Amino acid sequence: xxxxxxxxxxxxxxxxxxxxxxxxxxxxxxxxxxxxxxxxxxxxxxxxxxxxxxxxxxxxxxxxxxxxxxxxxxxxxxxxxxxxxxxxxxxxxxxxxxxxxxxxxxxxxxxxxxxxxxxxxxxxxxxxxxxxxxxxxxxxxxxxxxxxxxxxxxxxxxxxxxxxxxxxxxxxxxxxxxxxxxxxxxxxxxxxxxxxxxxxxxxxxxxxxxxxxxxxxxxxxxxxxxxxxxxxxxxxxxxxxxxxxxxxxxxxxxxxxxxxxxxxxxxxxxxxxxxxxxxxxxxxxxxxxxxx
Length: 292
Ligand code: FES
Description:
By secondary structure, this protein is α+β, with helices and mostly antiparallel strands. It contains 6 helices and 16 strands. The radius of gyration is 18 Å and the shape is globular. The site of FE2/S2 (inorganic) cluster (FES) has 11 residues, from loops.
């Protein structure tokens, strides 16, 4: 009998599916849903004791409507992730600071949802460490050249610090927000939802695949260093359109490139995405729809 995965139902059951439809899927259906968001539902799978969660979200889902960024607690992980009691609660900077203070590296991360889209939010003690020589266990954001799968250099991640056009992505508050669809086959990489050498609480400079605190995609083990910002290209799955973006570096696995950043502000301690359409930064529409 095919293995069944327990799923969390969509916060808005607007797709007409019966509850049972969302709660149990066999592997074939899970993979189909996870690779294509056309159904527009949110699903969450638990792989038994591993506790990996993957979710699928339609861009028009109203969960996390507006600009707020909400915690998304993987089904079955309510007692293990540090934000387990905060499912669909608003993310705050102070919560990440408090959690980061408990780690060896001063880093913390969490799964989230913004307007129906999956994100990972990662706190890095950049301000504290940026003026010291890079050393093991002292993470900071690093800006590097991005190269596509052919090896061609696309551009420099530091453009977000230097160019007015990209000032909304400038590093601030020791936090970045990452649009979390894997450029391999569009699964949803997570933050420390599995335990292995890539996700351990340690850090090495240089954007290497070694060193921990990677975003890890359990589907086929792609890894991303959330402390390395690069400029790169990606391709829309449906139209084939190639676009430039700024995002975190892919360090290993089958994903061809990394995942894009999301511009945000901190208002009264609460994390909110900047309305980039209203700001006229229309390029970013491509960044968050490449799996659609
Ligand atoms: S979908 Fe992420 S590694 Fe395959």
